[in-house]
Amino acid sequence: MASILAIESSCDETGVAIIKDGKLLSNVVSTQIEVHAKYGGVMPEIASRLHTENITIVLREALIKAGVKLDEIDAFAITRGPGLIGALHVGMQAAKTLSMLYEKPLIPVHHLAGHIYANEFDKPLTYPLLAVVVSGGNSEFVYMEKELDFKIIGHTRDDAIGECYDKVARVLGLPYPGGVPIDNLAKEGEHTYDLPIPLKGEDTLDLSYSGLKTNVINLVHNLTQKGEEINVKNMCKSFQDVAIGELIKRTIKAVKMYKIKNIVLAGGVSANSYLREQIKIEMDKLGVNVIIPPLWCTTDNASMIAKVGEKLYERKIFALLDIGVDPNWELSDYLNFK
Ligand code: KG4
């Protein structure tokens, strides 16, 4: 066991967390959402600049909250990818500097491994399992035979589900990020709009969200041009039924194909109330055990990076100081960071 300080800066949250002998001592997040909301999405250059401004402040607060000094840290864990290249670089440079100054190992962590292991703040994972990873940048089914063994068995062919939520919200005039407002409004709406089913009839574990997104955008524009009023609540409900319905349908297929007994949800979209409710109902029918992350760790933060950092520290998976970031790092390739 050890004291790990972890840094996360892959998108629009600057996070630093400290974990000691398995206990989370601090988890500080500075979110940039308000700034990006003005533009209806994350502006990469602004994200990098804000990470640069905030990183030392967040670092200092995390140390104070944990009551730990930098020279007591045994290793520095860092999100190496995937994410926005400039944003990733800020965290990486901070982590490299600390690793060099304090002569302690640098641990490169895959962001999605972090999302999956965030579930261990609830309970330890039981293998083999299926991780349903759904966020703003990724949608994939990950089969895990054992700890830190990631096999991608299905993924989105185009847009991630979270990105689709954000774009649909934008065309409906809802705030960024769009997941929460759509989730809330859908509860008050009815499924009245006829939207296309992605990859209809295809026997696959892949997902696709770009057609659904474009269809909603075109429908909204057509109705607006004709002067017809859009019922936003009903549009949210119709969209969410298809977006989440498809995810559940493919999850059931993966469960049957791989004879899965344990499922975990991971990533920002795992905060979706309809997904959390429906997956439980459907998996109960199949006798599959479901782990759903606590809401506080569904969004980006460094505690999940620290969790994986601990596991890699035990295995002595360390990087040299010439390591770079990788915005497209594949989860199944998480040990390849040369
Ligand atoms: O995991 P995350 O914080 O960032 C990435 O690593 O991508 O996920 C952010 C995404 C956004 O697209 C946001 O709209 C979505 O998660 N999200 C939701 C909900 N809460 C956040 N999507 C659907 N329903 C929600 N309740």
Structural class: alpha/beta
Unreliable runs: none
Count of individual beta strands: 10
Span of the ends, CA to CA:
26 Å
Largest sheet: 5 strands, mixed
Which hetero ligands occur in this complex? 5'-O-[(R)-(carboxyoxy)(hydroxy)phosphoryl]adenosine
Q: Roughly what is the average pLDDT, rounded to an integer?
A: 96
Name the overall outline: globular
Strand order of the largest sheet: 3-2-1-4-5
N to C succession of SSEs: EEEHHEHEHEEEHHHHEHEH
Helix content: 40-55%
Kindly provide the radius of gyration, computed on alpha-carbon positions and rounded to a whole number of angstroms. Answer: 20 Å
Approximate strand percentage: 15-25%
Number of helices in the DSSP assignment: 10
Folded structure, characterized:
With 338 residues, the chain is of the alpha/beta class. The protein contains ten helices and ten strands. The strands form two sheets. A five-stranded mixed β-sheet has the order 3-2-1-4-5, sandwiched between helices. Helix 3 links the parallel strand 4 and strand 5. Helix 2 packs parallel to helix 3 and helix 4 packs across helix 10. The longest helix is centred in the last third of the chain and has 27 residues. It is globular and about 65 Å long. The model has no long low-confidence stretch (mean pLDDT 96). 5'-O-[(R)-(carboxyoxy)(hydroxy)phosphoryl]adenosine (KG4) binds next to helix 5 and helix 6.
